[in-house]
Amino acid sequence: MKKILKSIISLSLAGMMIFAVAGCNAGGKAEAAASDFTYDDGISESGSYNTKYFYRNDNLVQWFADPGCIYVSEEEDSEYGGYFYIYGTTRKSDNALLGVRTKDFASYENLGPVIMLSEDDWARGDIWAPEVIVNPNPANENEKYLMYFSANSLAATGDVSYDNFHLALACAPTPAGPFVLYEKLHNGEENSYKETYSNLIPSIDFTKHAGEIQDGIIDVLPYDGYEGKPYIKSEAIDKGVWALIDASAFFDENGDEYLYFVGHADSYKSNGVIYGVKMKDIATPDYSTLRPLAVAGRKIISKDSNGDYKATGAVASVDSGVNEGPFLQYHYTERNGVKTKKYYLTYSNPGYDDPRYSVDVAVSDAPLGDFDKIGDLTGRPMSGIGEEGWKHISGAGHHSIVTAGDEMFIVYHTHAARSSSYPNPRAIDADRVYWQYNEELGYDIYHTNGPTWSLQPVPEVTSGLKNIAGEASVSATNVKQGSKKAYLTDKFVPTHAYSDNIEFRANGSTVITLTFLEDYKVSSIFVYNSRQYDYAFDKLAKVTLYNGNVKYVMNNVMFNKDYVEEKPDENRYFVYPSSAAVMAFEPITCNKITIEINSKLSKANNEIGVGDVYVYGEVA
Q: Is the pTM of this model over 0.85?
């Protein structure tokens, strides 16, 4: 590896600004007036990289599972804005929940406890899976940010500790807290059911409304691959036990709020069913609207001819054990001038300690279903290993989806040791997500460029740079029949088998040309490799930026072999998904870029695959 020819700026992982020399890879010499042009092409031998341009999922924040994440812009909050705020289940979650914040996913600031529960609060143990949402119509400044989570209750019932799990709400004036239990803020007041709020008693209690919710609870019966005992709803609810976790709130565009959550294992063997309910207000469910939305091993839950909810349809074998960690979004697909609204329920399975733990999606026309799960060949897993068998990522699931500016990210946890042999600690990771039209379904679905363990572009809201590759006209030589040059700049990097058909392919060597109608100041380029070893390139022979008669040339930009798994004895050959050959440099004004590729990792065939090309810059 060559030394870089000049210093660059780096950030410490502790979040403090420092100036350092990142001893990264190559220096490129220009062929004309840019004789001292240099560039940074990745990670140094010491493991450092330039966090001005890059982040990598290095599992920096550990013992931090089930992450809930929001982005707060500076326009929304001049004091606290400009950060992703992340909340999670921590190692000691008996009376507190911790938070961190980040601008770039390369360094994190510890916020400490964002909620501290006192000895007389009903929530006193196993405080899990916090999710925060901005209240669109806060009654007062203390209820601007709403944190929903689950906790064990002092009001013990049942035979095991999990029997006491309840859903909880805490509120705060800032995303950094302090969050306070809703019952404590409204102690002595009554809800619409004439129930009095007290910090000694959980106010969201479905077992108090058994008569209203019975029709909305589904029996969990054995199916192929199911190893648990049948769960008969009446056995639990009639005895005042219904353990609930993984609360996640959603506000529809008309202001209606819905709460989604999961039935946890309890004395009566409840098995990971996702439920939803409409809310009367931020702390009060309309219990009569409760219904089941998703269960492991079945494709859809709908009412039968008798009006009872039944789970039917086959799904992938990995969709077993539990469905948990729900998160809901709505999105409009616009096609031929027609807008179609869909609701997207994302969830995780089969269990957090399984390396295949991934995020899947089910789609509906309404916020309370019916939700139909997307199949293997269409778009599952949305994010995670699924059945790929990768060894660099394990347990990538339980997530939030967050919008920051014009970009969308999925924030999730993984096994920090990258092995299911050690499912704890879990750590925070993040990747980009896009909406992609699916011809078979007739509407947009998620496309995730991940899960990743390689250099990725810093969020645009932080770098101030945009991916401008889509603004260019694109040409390429030796395009394979059936492939499309448009695949080079559509932002969709193929990461699973179902997306291999959108990877650009060339018959042998290829020259890719991006031509812009105006001048841009370009600062970094990412050329994403094929996820399939047999088509992956080993280097970029030459990358040239054109500014009039001046050419800025980078020769032999290597693809980092750390992103390749080669184990001939096991017949295992993998390229980590969404891995790129990268180049970062001081801004260069140009209106054309060429990328020449003529060599590859494998000799199995002569085809070369390119996942996508990202170019970051701004109008000159």
A: yes
Adjacent-strand bridge partners of 152: 125, 165
Give the number of other CB atoms < 10 A from CB of residue 337.
5
The terminus-to-terminus CA distance of the chain in angstroms comes to 33
Q: Which two tokens stand for residue 486?
A: 């448009």
Q: Which residues of 141-159 are buried (b: 16+ CB within 10 A; e: fewer)?
A: eebbbbbbbbbbbbeeebe
Structure tokens at 225: 């691959």
Q: Where are the beta strands (DSSP E) in 123-172?
A: 123-134, 145-153, 165-172
CA atoms of 105 and 430, how far apart (whole Å):
7
Q: How big is the CA angle at 356 (ends 351 and 357), to the nearest 5 degrees?
A: 40
How many C-beta atoms surround the C-beta of residue 263 within 10 A?
Answer: 30
Residue 196 β-bridge partners: 190
Cα dihedral sign, 76-77-78-80: negative
Which residue type sits at 254? N
pLDDT tens digits, one per residue of 252-303: 999 999 999 999 887 766 668 999 999 999 999 999 999 999 998 889 999 9
266 and 162 Cβ atoms separated by less than 8 Å: yes
The two structure tokens encoding residue 498: 């179902």
* Residue whose pair of structure tokens reads 């394990």 in the numeric block: 394
Residue (of 449, 453, 413) closest to 431 by Cα position: 449
Nearest to 372 by CA among 443, 291, 432, 294: 294
- In which residue are the tokens 């969404």 written? 578
Rounded Cα distance between 238 and 210, Å, is: 7
Q: Rounded distance, CA 583 to CA 553, Å?
A: 11
Burial classification of residue 385, based on how many CB atoms lie within 10 Å of its CB (0-12 exposed, 13-18 middle, 19 or more buried): buried
pLDDT of 398-444, one tens digit each?
999 999 999 999 999 999 998 767 788 999 999 999 999 999 999 99
Instruction: Quote the CA–CA distance of 609 and 528 in Å, as a whole number.
Output: 9
